[in-house]
Amino acid sequence: MLIRIIVVIALVLLLWLGTRRMKIVPGRGQAALEFILNFVRKGIVIDTLGEKDGKRFMPILMTFFFLILGMNLTGTIPPFLMAGTAVPGLPLLLAVVAWVMMIYAGLRRNKWRYLKNALFLPGVPWPLYFLLTPIELISTFVLRPVTLFLRLLMNMVAGHMLLVLCFSATQFFLFTVLANGNLIGFLGIGTFAFGVVFTFFEIFVAALQAYVFTFLATIYIQMSLAEEH
Amino acid sequence: MLNIVGQLAPLAFGLAAIGSGIGVGIIVGKTIESVARQPELQGRLQSLMFLGIALTEALAFIAIAVAFIPFPAPAAG
Predict the structure, then answer these.
(1) Residues of chain A with pLDDT under 50
(2) Each residue of A18-37: pLDDT tens digit?
(3) Domains of chain B (ranges plus CATH)?
(4) What ipTM was estimated for this complex?
(5) Which of A44, A143, A146, A151 to mutate to test the interface with B (most CBs of B within 10 A)?
(6) What is the pLDDT of residues A75-97, one digit of tens each?
(7) Distance between CA atoms of A219 and A150, rounded to whole angstroms?
(8) What is the pLDDT of residue A60?
(9) pTM of the full predicted structure?
């Protein structure tokens, strides 16, 4: 809980201080920040949704990206070492927001035709609808938010467990086994090396999950906005 | 009588990891193949690759989540 508050304050400070004095020729910090902002804006949102719809959904998708990135990174930063997204509450909230936004986008654009488009695939002989409609219902309205939630949560939980395993094994081998004079304790050096490697891997995964979550939310919105499949 | 005590959830994760391991392998392999054919498409292919990996990986992560479902404990005996 405290970690999340700290992350939110840090993000607000970073973005506020980073964009307060914009220069035409950016300095190093501004260039880095602009690179990330531009990556989300151009690479994820506008490329998928197009200029007009992209601008409408930009604020919330940008919030997704930065919130998830910040929360994920606390899993590898030493004073915290616990990702804000590694407990179910936050990923669940984000997935529900993405789900509501997906349905809202579809209903706003296509009115009730949205449900017809989503549930009844065109160009299928009608008896098949008894089979296809329940599958579409489950896959669109149940599995999408559930997988968004589980993907983010379990990536962080599994990464955390992996680091805990590596470093607690190091502690055990070096300070219990080796201290008792058993040479098998030198295995601790190997587990420590693995722990360090996986720490860097976790940083990569943190950025990747932020990207994937935002990208998938964008794609779901885009599929809702589409007139016909 | 043989009596085995333990958790089945790690086994379930192991089985699920086979499937998504094969899937991720195919996705990455095909991406490398396509980049070798058309190096100018690398950026686009990479983002598609990560998307595919994320979708495939989700199956394995669902299997991890199984361990956290509070099943009622079987009656002792």
Answers:
(1) none
(2) 777 777 777 787 888 888 88
(3) 13-66 (1.20.20.10)
(4) 0.75
(5) A151
(6) 888 878 888 888 888 999 999 99
(7) 18
(8) 92
(9) 0.86
User: Can you say whether residue B70 is alpha, beta or left, with left for phi > 0 and alpha for psi between -120 and 50 degrees?
Assistant: beta
A43 vs B57: CB contact, 8 Å cut-off? Answer: no
- Is there a contact between B62 and A158 if contact means CB atoms under 8 Å apart? no
- In chain A, which residues have their Cβ closer than 8 Å to the Cβ of B47? 43, 215
What residue in A sits closest to B44 (Cα-Cα)?
A43
Question: Would you list the domain boundaries of chain A?
Answer: 2-225
Q: Helices A28-38 & A2-18, crossing angle to 10 degrees?
A: 110
Amino acid, res. A175 = F
Cβ neighbours of residue A144 closer than 8 Å, sequence gap 6 or more:
A99, A102, A220
Of B54, B62, B65, Cβ closest to residue A212: B54
- What is the 3-state composition of chain B as percent helix, strand, coil, each rounded to the nearest 5? 75, 0, 25
- For residues B44 and B25, which has the higher predicted lDDT (pLDDT)? B25
